[in-house]
Structures are given as structure tokens and as C-alpha cells.
Amino acid sequence: MSSLHQTKSILQSHMPSRTRNFQIQTENMPEMILNQLIESLTDYGFFQVDDQGYIQSWNDGAKKLFLYESEEIIGEKLNHLYDVDESLPLFSSPDYYPESLFEGWQIRRDRSRFWAQVKYSPLITLDGDFIGYLVIVKDLSESRQLERQKAEFIGTASHELKTPVASIKGYTQILQHSCGTDPKSAVFLNKMNDQINRLGLLVDELLDVSKIQSGKLILQPETVDVSSLVRDIAEDIQTISPSHEIIIQEDQPISITLADRYRLSQVLVNLLTNAIKFSPKANTIFVKIENDKDSIRVSVRDFGIGISKKNVYHIFERFYQVENTIRKSFSGLGLGLYISSEIIKQHGGKIWVESEKGKGSLFGFSVPIKKN
Amino acid sequence: MTHKILVCDDDESIGEVLKIMLENDGFEVMGLQNGKGIQKKVEQFDPSLILLDIWMPGIDGKEVTKLLKGNPMTKKIPIILISALNDTKKIALECGADDFLTKPFDMQHLLSTVRSHLN
Predict the structure, then answer these.
(1) Could you write out the three-class secondary structure of chain A?
(2) Cβ(A42)–Cβ(A60) under 8 Å?
(3) In terms of pLDDT, which residue wins out, A326 or B50?
(4) B107 to chain A: which residues are within 8 Å by CB?
(5) Is some CB atom of chain A closer than 8 A to the CB atom of B87?
(6) How confident is the model over B47-61, as pLDDT tens digits?
(7) Does B85 touch chain A (CB under 8 A)?
């Protein structure tokens, strides 16, 4: 009976909170009903093994997953269900029977494989004797397949969207170099090139969001001097946007850490272009680089339209843009700060904003100092 | 001396753009739309540099790179991989390519990258 009690508490810990009322009733549930409940859970394989690893019970979910009938498998050893006997360590130490959760291949009756998450919960009597495990098996084939499809989609979408952008950009640049002296054509071609670059950036943003959401935004760390990276990017942006003077303030000329150079550049470009975009009536942007022994902090200060208190809390959210009126005057998908905050989080750093409507904003981030 | 460049991209317009940009800059260009039989074509054309799309049907840019870098006859020819993925650099380093370009590429950047491997 104590193993039944254990089974109940394990079941309860796996139930979502909305079934809590139901859980309370299970406290006095007769064994028969509980067994029926386990039997009928067809989406999960539930079974018990004894302290030697012999299968003791088998529910409908286990039948469906492993294709063994109860009478075929009960009394057999657990290693029928694995390629290699991964269950052995669980029985190897007589004093230590941890709860364990792992993902791996499981073998069906017909020797075909499926990828599953398996949880072993030890069954201990009231006297403290270990009598086996309750095993819960969740088939992950579908979600694994979905993950793979997502990754493939990101790859295909990158290729399919960026290839036409690349060829239009290419033809435009060829024309720019061969249009001769017609000033009107030159102006139009420059505009075309700017618009293509804008389209390219939007495609990048959308793909980055898909990557973030499927956990595929993987950093490629290298040694980066953040200080010189900031100076390089500020210089590039200064060339494109001469309307604002970018002034760099730094206490140390070198700030070296391990970071993903491309991704960090993306954050800096985002913060600087935002600062320029949202301060059309100002002409100065301050960039400050500070170091302490643990981290490097970079902040970008503008004197633009600022953000109201109501909006400032949502500014790093996906697709978030402030009021409609502002959205009409400033283009973009509202993904830049979301992507930046995810990049900084992945670096183990922090991103923040201080802003006052009508006075301007300060966006800052920190990255920890890491060494090779 | 005119340098010969082999361009291999399954997308016709990218292939054409690369060809025009390089020819306008004085290179002799041969265009291919896939990596099939590339080894033989490389031996015949004897290019000074190869521009290769990573994402091609059949034999892809990574496999072509490994093939050419594994052959003593062709291993010294610089290979620049082109891809739409932002992690092209990592892929290029892993398969032994000499450099990479990310789509959409800039004409000046393309030409300077190509030239940097020819001197």
C-alpha cells in the first residue's frame, strides 16, 4: 500500500494546477480507481519495476508506446526497452536511489526506436525500504520532429528570402556603377539600394526572432575588445547618419571579454540607430563605456522623444512599439530591442532603460568579463 | 594577367550578378549552377579562386569544399563560401574554406574579399 501512496503523490506532482480539486479527492481514492486512472492514461507510459529491474505493471499508454501486451512484458527485465542498458546504474547502488529524468531512445516490441523522456521515481516503503521504481515515459518523437522542422524552416526561409534580396541588391549596384552621368538615375538607384538594405534587415530580424523562439540563437564567442567595437560601429553609423554627432566617453581604452562579435555589434547598431531615429530634433548622442572587474557596461544616451512610464516597462517585449501616432512616424517591426535583450541575456548580461517622455532615453547593457 | 574565377551558385540571378560584378572588375569568370562534376571542371578551367554557394541541391557547398580541399591538385585554390545564414563564418571554418560572404553582399566587399585572396 505504501507504494500506492507513493504513486499517488508522484501522480499529484505531475498534475497541472487546474486539476487540484481532483487531486484532493485522490487522497482517499481506492486503489482500484487509481489503477484504472493509470491504466487509462494512454498518452504516457506508466509502469512499475521492482528493486531488481523486473517489470511489475504496465498501463495502456505503455502498451501503445512499446507495443507489448501486459502479459508479454510483466515479469521481464527493464532492459528489453533500451538499446543499451541505461537503467542499470539505477540499481547499482543499494543505498542511493535517486529520482532521475533523462531523454533517450526506447525500443518497441518490433525493435523500432522512439525518442522519449523517461522519469524514474523511487518507491520507498514507510519503513524506508526501496522496492523499485515508478517509470513514466513520454513520447517526444513528435516534438523532436517539430524542432527539426523549425530549424529546417529557418534555414530555408533565410535562403529563400535573402537570395532575391541579394540579387536585387547586386543588380542595383551594377547599375549604380554603369548608369553614367544621369543624376536622376543615380539618386533613384541610391534610394533603391537603401530600401533593399532595409528589407534585408527586416528579414534578418524576423529570422532572428524565429531562432530565439526555437532556442537556435547560438552564440559564437571570441575575444572581443568591446571598446574598439563600439568605436568602429559608432564610426560606421556616423558616416551614414551625419545629422547627429556621436560622442564616446570611456574610462579605459580597452575592454576585453569573450563575446559573440556579430551579435554584440547587432545590439550596438540597434541602440545607436534607435537613438538617432527617435531624436529627430536633437543632434548629439552620448555613448559611455565603463568597466569594473566583473563586467563591461555600455550606455547610449539620446535627447529625443523619450518613452512614457506606461510604455517603458514593455519596451523589450516582442513586437512592442509605443503609441500608434508614434508608430506612424517611425517605421520598423518593433523587434530590435527584443532581439537585443535576448542577445544580452544569452551573454549572461543585463539590458536596461531610463527614459522620460520629451527628454530622451538612456539604453544600457552590461556583459560579464569572461576569459578564454 | 587576368585571374580566372569559378562561380558556383544554383540561383541563376545570383550567378549572373557575381559574374557581371567580377567581369566588370577585369576577371575571367566561369559560372556553374551546381557542384556536379566540379572537380573535373576545376581541373580544366584552372581558376585562381572559387566562389561557392553553401546551399545547393545535390552536392552542397560544404561537400564541394571538402572535396576540393582534399585533392592535392586543387587544395591550394582559395574558396569563398556564400550563404544567407548568419553563421556562414562557422560553417566556412569547419569545412576548410578560406573565407565567406553573407547574402545580401556588398559589391565593394565582394571585390575586396576576392582580391585579398589573390595576392
Answers:
(1) CHHHHHHHHHHHHHCCHHHHHHHHHHCCCCHHHHHHHHHHCCCEEEEEEECCCEECCCCHHHHHHHCCCHHHHCCCEHHHHCCCCCCHHHHHCCCCCCCEEEEEEEECCCCCEEEEEEEEEEEECCCCCEEEEEEEEEECHHHHHHHHHHHHHHHHHHHHHHHHHHHHHHHHHHHHHHCCCCHHHHHHHHHHHHHHHHHHHHHHHHHHHHHHHCCCCCCCCEEEEHHHHHHHHHHHHHHHCCCCEEEEEECCCCCEEEECHHHHHHHHHHHHHHHHHCCCCCCEEEEEEEECCCEEEEEEECCCCCCCHHHHCCCCCCCCCCCHHHHHHCCCCCCHHHHHHHHHHHCCCEEEEEEECCCEEEEEEEEECCCC
(2) yes
(3) B50
(4) 170, 173-174, 177
(5) yes
(6) 999 999 988 888 888
(7) yes
What is the per-residue pLDDT for A330? 65
Query: Is B21 in contact with A161 (Cβ distance < 8 A)?
Result: no
Do the strands A245-250 and A222-225 form a parallel or antiparallel pair, or are they unpaired?
Answer: unpaired
Q: Where are the beta strands (DSSP E) in B27-105?
A: 28-32, 49-53, 79-83, 99-102
B85 CB neighbours in chain A (<8 A) are 155, 158-159
- C-beta atoms of A165 and B83 within 8 A: no
pLDDT confidence tier of residue A19, bands split at 50, 70 and 90? very low
Contact A106, A135 (CB under 8 A): no
Choose among A155, A158, A166: nearest Cβ to B105.
A166
Residue of A nearest to B87 (CA): A220
Query: What is the model's pLDDT at position A327?
Result: 53
> Chain A: residue nearest B21 by CA?
A174
For range A16-43, the mean pLDDT: 59
pLDDT digits (tens, 9 = 90+) for A64-119: 999 999 999 999 988 888 765 554 556 655 555 677 788 888 899 998 888 899 88
State chain B's maximal CA–CA distance in angstroms. 35
Question: How close, in Å, is residue A266 to chain B by CA atoms?
Answer: 12
